[in-house]
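Structure tokens
________________
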Amino acid sequence: MRKVAFLSMDSLEGYSCYDDLLIDPLKNLNWQADTVSWKSKNTNWKDYDCVIVRSTWDYQDSPKEFIEVLKNINTQTKLENNIEIFKWNMDKKYLRDLEEKGVKIVSSIWREKFYDTELEHYFDLLNTDEIIIKPTVSASAFNTFRINRSNLDTHISILDTIFNNTPFIVQPFINNIIKEGEYSLFYFGGEYSHAILKTPKQNDFRVQEEHGGILKLVQPEDEMKTAAEKILKEIKTNLLYARIDFVRTDENDFALMELELIEPSLYFNMDPNSPQRFSKIFNEWMK
């Protein structure tokens, strides 16, 4: 029996993870799947035919250490997705790269350091009364702030502390995230698998389950799938998995929120056939 490691974290307490739904389908294809923390010091990665980065949802706390671990794994066995994709995708500046290739993203301002004198100008530059500020390296809405013109003064101190030497991105708050939700499309080996709609709980804007987000399996509009597949073509790299997050704009088209290629939840719980679908594609991938 061949072995695959799901790269995870020391504890998943407080998180919703569905990778265990892959264990039986993989076993039926003669694969043993083990969940291993990326911080493990005593794992021989050569024991595994492949390491799939799955639920490493604390990597943003020490991104340099995380990349060094991935580099080490990459010298000993097959790593998915590949190391160059990880280096590129872990910083949200990849969105700027995609925008330059014609991909529609949410309007964004990029800054390397916070200056309180600039804060009020962000609203004017983005033509909005409400903004989102978040680190360019983050996960699960970590250090993400929703700010409007009336409460910006109350945020200056904490923003100055967090972003004093931390690059960040500023975007207009997209009200459709509350009105309709955020769409996620999932691709395995370049093939479409399933899609979900994530909506925040009442009086919140975060769509992640950990923050009370509500999930629904949906059939994506053709325009959304076309936009997703255009993005994948721009990557020009074979990907074992990809999650593409969209929001509907006021012009009734779709803007890319995130292209998740490192450690996205693939929500195998939402589509009962997706674990088998992923397992089959992975098995073929490894031949």
Remarks:
- The radius of gyration is 19 Å.
- The longest strand covers residues 191-199.
- The domain at 2-89 is CATH 3.40.50.20 (Rossmann fold).
- Residues 57 and 139 are 7 Å apart (CA to CA).
